[in-house]
């Protein structure tokens, strides 16, 4: 069977070859319905752009870098997979790189773009500051993920963490919780993401006339189920009382559930628990975990679209796009 061509995609989708090219390259002004029809035709035919020809014509590599702290963090594993899929649909090859939150590693990711090794970078920085990101070479194609501050000229995709944390905390309050803990306060200082989530938690308590008890700020050293288990178990051993827990992420919530089960604390009867990220495991825990679900597929599509537009010449001001999230109620809060 011959390799599918651009003309085959155009015929199946009922559009012009120029429209297919625009969709593949992330350019042009096709409607969302047209883009969806073209992508469906690409998937059905298994079409892949001729990368060699494009490199000769444009001087581009057809490769982008996706840089996260570690794919051992389940959220980053899931979002990296979705970014890879979105990149392929746009005719790009994604190289997944881990920085381990190290400043030198993060600077090296940016240097790859400046040396022309990749066409652009989708990046969730941990150690870099806005000043590190603003002084890039002209035409630098960069999209930031996450909640850290971004320079005005850099594209940025995020969710509204404070609003989502208020929603999760209010959900517990509406189910009768009056002594709500927050699991995930970093002992070495709050990250931007945690800071926003903790602020939303405190705002919801204040709005309900509840006091934020410092003893219910459960500290962690890192993000893992084991650390969530340790923090909750330690709090119980120290006599800290709570009837609800807002967890910074689903991994910590997994450990929290384990600690509560181990101490024969009924969930949600005695303690209701919410997580964050809607990881695949969340719906398969016992009880299934109520969680904040960021629209991860939309985050990936938006980031790749913005990057592709930069790669193909967009030189306007930075675009800061907020992607929706939603509270997904499950049995861990079903009172």
From TrEMBL:
SMART domains: HTH_LACI
Molecular function GO labels: DNA-binding transcription factor activity; transcription cis-regulatory region binding
Keywords: DNA-binding, Transcription, Transcription regulation
Entry keyword annotation includes Nucleus: no
Highest taxon of source: Bacteria
Keyword Transcription belongs to the record: yes
Domain HTH lacI-type: 4-58
Pfam families, alphabetized: LacI, Peripla_BP_3
PANTHER family tied to this protein: HTH-TYPE TRANSCRIPTIONAL REGULATOR GALS, LACI-RELATED TRANSCRIPTIONAL REPRESSOR
Record protein name field: LacI family transcriptional regulator
């Amino acid at each position: 069977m011959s390799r599918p061509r651009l003309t085959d995609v155009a015929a199946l989708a009922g559009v012009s070859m120029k429209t297919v090219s625009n969709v593949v390259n992330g350019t042009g002004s096709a409607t969302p319905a047209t883009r969806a029809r073209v992508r469906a035709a690409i998937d059905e035919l298994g079409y892949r752009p001729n990368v060699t020809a494009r490199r000769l014509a444009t001087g581009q590599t057809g490769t982008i870098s996706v840089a996260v702290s570690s794919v051992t963090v389940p959220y980053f594993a899931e979002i990296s997979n979705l970014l890879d899929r979105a990149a392929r649909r746009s005719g790009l090859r994604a190289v997944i790189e881990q920085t381990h939150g190290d400043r030198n590693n993060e600077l090296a990711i940016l240097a790859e773009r400046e040396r022309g090794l990749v066409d652009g970078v989708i990046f969730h920085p941990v150690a870099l500051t806005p000043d590190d990101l603003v002084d890039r070479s002209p035409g630098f194609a960069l999209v930031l993920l996450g909640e850290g501050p971004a320079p005005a000229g850099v594209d940025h995709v995020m969710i509204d963490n404070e609003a989502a944390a208020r929603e999760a905390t209010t959900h517990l309050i509406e189910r009768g919780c009056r002594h709500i803990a927050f699991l995930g306060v970093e002992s070495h200082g709050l990250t931007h993401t945690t800071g926003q989530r903790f602020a939303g938690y405190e705002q919801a308590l204040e709005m309900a006339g509840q006091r934020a008890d410092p003893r219910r700020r459960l500290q962690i050293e890192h993000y893992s189920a084991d650390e969530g288990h340790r923090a909750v178990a330690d709090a119980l051993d120290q006599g800290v009382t709570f009837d609800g827990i807002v967890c910074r992420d689903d991994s910590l919530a997994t450990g929290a559930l384990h600690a509560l089960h181990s101490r024969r604390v009924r969930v949600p009867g005695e303690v209701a628990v919410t997580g964050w990220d809607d990881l695949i495991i969340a719906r398969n825990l016992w009880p299934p975990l109520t969680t904040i679900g960021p629209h991860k597929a939309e985050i990936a599509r938006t980031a790749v679209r913005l990057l592709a537009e930069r790669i193909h010449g967009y030189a306007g001001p930075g675009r800061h796009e907020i992607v929706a999230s939603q509270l997904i109620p499950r049995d861990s809060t079903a009172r």
